[in-house]
Amino acid sequence: MVEDVVSVETPGNRDDVLRILKRTGISGVPVTKNGELVGIITRKDLLRKSDETQLSLLMTSDPVTIGPDESIVEAARVMSRNNFRRLPVVEDGRLVGLISIADLISAIAQMKFSEEIKNGYTKPTFALWEETPLPLVGRIMEISGFDAIPILNKESTLTGIISERDLIRHASIEDSVEVSDLSNGTDDDEWTWESIRDMHTISFGISKVQLPEKLVKEAMIKDVVAVPQNAEVSECALKMKRSRVDQLPVINGDKKMVSMLFDRELIKVLIKDIAP
Fold first, then answer.
1. Phi and psi (nearest 5°) for 126?
2. CATH no. for residue 145?
3. Which is the most buried residue in 101, 196, 198, 218, by most CB within 10 A?
């Protein structure tokens, strides 16, 4: 586990969380209060609740945790079962560390698993055109549940990968003022005198996490690391670790992309022969 955990304290500021995710590239941060874990905030929370500023409303309260003496097999089992990317490590109610999928991938890279990834680790996927606007990419990710999508040019050639990490890297905070009209009566009411009509308007500030109107080709990762279908599990884990990526496109003998290998699928090698 990582012992020096980047976290935020509640009550706190959403903008601080965005800055942390941008600076570090991590996918989420624990939320503490007086040293005790009370929640966790992820990239998905910021993108899906773009107009929410309060940490208590953004975070997932009472997150699932694990103890420091548990095995990495148990950590993999909990992450796979709940589709988590990280687990806070708690001892006596206090946050003492964090174990992530990336940490498990590092362990798998050293464990010399020779099984080929085509044996149940790859997943079908879809791709986006490189001219797709970033706000639309964010919405497609939210609808599809994919946190990384391959990008193709008009010749159907793989030119890049876009992930939630890239979206957060390009996101900004946009402040605006909206006006709500709470007037009594309508313009169609001929018996309402304008001079005595009750007019009420309320102005209120809106602060949103905003994606710029850039094309996805301007934000995607272009130096794509791909693997063949017969690549071995630990070999792929090592490529993920060295390239600091969460996914790898899988190509066939004609160098055409046929599927994706996600780190969350790769960690299942640790629990493959163990009952849930």
1. -135, 170
2. 3.10.580.10
3. 101
- State pLDDT tens for residues 67-115: 999 999 999 999 999 988 999 999 988 889 999 999 999 999 999 899 9
Mean pLDDT value across residues 243-260: 89
Q: With cut-offs at 50, 70 and 90, classify the pLDDT of residue 49.
A: confident
Domain that holds residue 197: 172-210
Mean pLDDT of 163-185: 67
Domain total in the chain: 3
Q: 12 and 54 in one domain? A: yes
The pTM assigned to this predicted structure is 0.77
